[in-house]
Amino acid sequence: MLLDTFGRTATDLRVSLTDRCNLRCTYCMPEEGLAWLAKPELLTDEEVVRLVRVAVTRLGVTEVRFTGGEPLLRPGLVGIVERCAALAPRPRLSLTTNGIGLERTAAALRSAGLDRVNVSLDTTDPETFHRITRRRRHADVLRGLAAAKAAGLDPVKVNAVLLPGLNDTEAPALLAWAVERGYELRFIEQMPLDPQHGWQREGMITAGDILASLRTRFSLTPEEDGERGSAPAERWVVDGGPHRVGVIASVTRPFCRACDRTRLTADGQVRTCLFAREESDLRGALRAGADDEELAARWRAATLGKKAGSGLDDPGFVQPRRPMSAIGG
Ligand SMILES: C[S@@+](CC[C@H](N)C(=O)[O-])C[C@H]1O[C@@H](n2cnc3c(N)ncnc32)[C@H](O)[C@@H]1O
Fold first, then answer.
1. Average pLDDT for residues 124-139, to the nearest whole number?
2. Any idea where the Radical SAM core domain is (predicted)?
3. What residue ranges do the domains of the chain occupy?
4. Among candidates 328, 266, 322, 326, which has minimal Cα distance to 41?
5. pLDDT interval class at 290 (50, 70, 90)
6. Gap from CA of 88 to ligand 1 centroid (Å)
7. Is the Cβ atom of 28 under 6 angstroms away from ligand 1?
8. How far is the centre of ligand 1, averaged over its atoms, from the C-alpha of 293 (Å)?
9. Measured distance CA(262)–CA(327) in Å, rounded
């Protein structure tokens, strides 16, 4: 088990497959990109599967989510999914993606064993999309979403970040659009993980703002069982159901006390939190010949260093060295 000193157990693994991306979302990556990891620094497909196997078979991980950077840019993605789906016990497998290229790969990913997908999309308007992502790929994302649904990935969730002055008035339009297509929309509060270190709490669109905006057009009732558990999204029933909308209030209502996550970066470093300032190197140990038990022991030891919370509210909060795209969102 991956038990920390606050009694939490990590069962949900986020694996970044690349730090590269084909979008340049202003809140995630600089316009010119970043200094990408060199190929030898990246875990190979074999190494990714080995570490997932250690997590699943020795450490109690039950959920594996592939992310990045943009995971669809990883040539070996379908094979990685297939090999992870063959593990016993079989983990639940999901993908967080910008959806570009999903049109071509959704069916293969589904056949390989992918269970569900989260596609990030902040707007229904192609021009606003261009302003946020600095790329003209809105139509590709829409086609990717439709293909995911057609391939039977279930649920298809859409992740949206609202930014002041860019898309902050779009919450109701996004929800109407998602409801019509059967996608489950989740808003995520913008976190201080931008490369410019320009995030300011005063300017951010909060969960409260988002809910108030949605309520101008929809009736929202908190989900019956109130079962947030370790799930970061609080969910509301839309207009009496069956549709739901989620809000992930990572900044204003953090879920650290119930956190069940552990992370592996594309270069094989364990991170216990998005905001962690320390990483533990599994790639070095793996390449030096460590066996599975030693890798598991290192992962357990790293988990003991997991902090109580993200530290966002501490007066001395310092943003992590790597931005979101390089950590793996
Ligand atoms: C870093 S991306 C990686 C996976 C993939 N490229 C995608 O677009 O989903 C994962 C998620 O992180 C979100 N994200 C990136 N930077 C963020 C920030 N500063 N605050 C909140 N969410 C952020 C993105 O909107 C996206 O939904």
1. 98
2. 5-223
3. 12-327
4. 266
5. very high
6. 30
7. yes
8. 33
9. 12
